[in-house]
Amino acid sequence: MPRKLKGLFAGDVEVVTVQERGWDSLENGDLLEAAQGEFDALLTTDRGIPHQQDLSGLGLTVVVLEAKSNRLEHLSPLIEEADAVLRRASPSAEGSPGGVWRVTGPGEAREDRGTKR
User: Fold this and answer.
1) What pTM was estimated for this model as a whole?
2) What per-residue string of b and e applies to 4-39 under the rule 16 or more CB within 10 Å gives b?
3) DSSP 77-116
4) Above 90 in pLDDT, residue 77?
5) How would you classify the pairing of strands 100-105 and 108-111?
6) What is the arithmetic mean of pLDDT over 57-71?
7) Is it the case that residue 59 has pLDDT exceeding 80?
């Protein structure tokens, strides 16, 4: 994902890229394991993660951005809704969604119930 997306999130949301964390060489399973130890959520454009990984018992919300491409102009319209999902997934939020959420457009997010759980 473009690093410039970080600046589009609300100021009180901590956004760290895999490159900044030094995790860019981790495979999906190892990335999820590392992320759950440090973060409440993982934001990705990899639509396959929910179907390729066993997410049962994962203490992490996975938010999948589904856009035409991974270019900034295609992903940036999804950030406001992704930000809303992340807020609902925070540990302090009542009824935290957890699981996998797909953000497909401005104001369009749905829980993915067909994933490996």
Assistant:
1) 0.84
2) ebeebbeeeeebeebeeeeeeeeeeeebbebbbeeb
3) GGHHHHHHHHHHHSTTSTT---SEEEEEETTEEEE-TTS-
4) yes
5) antiparallel
6) 88
7) no
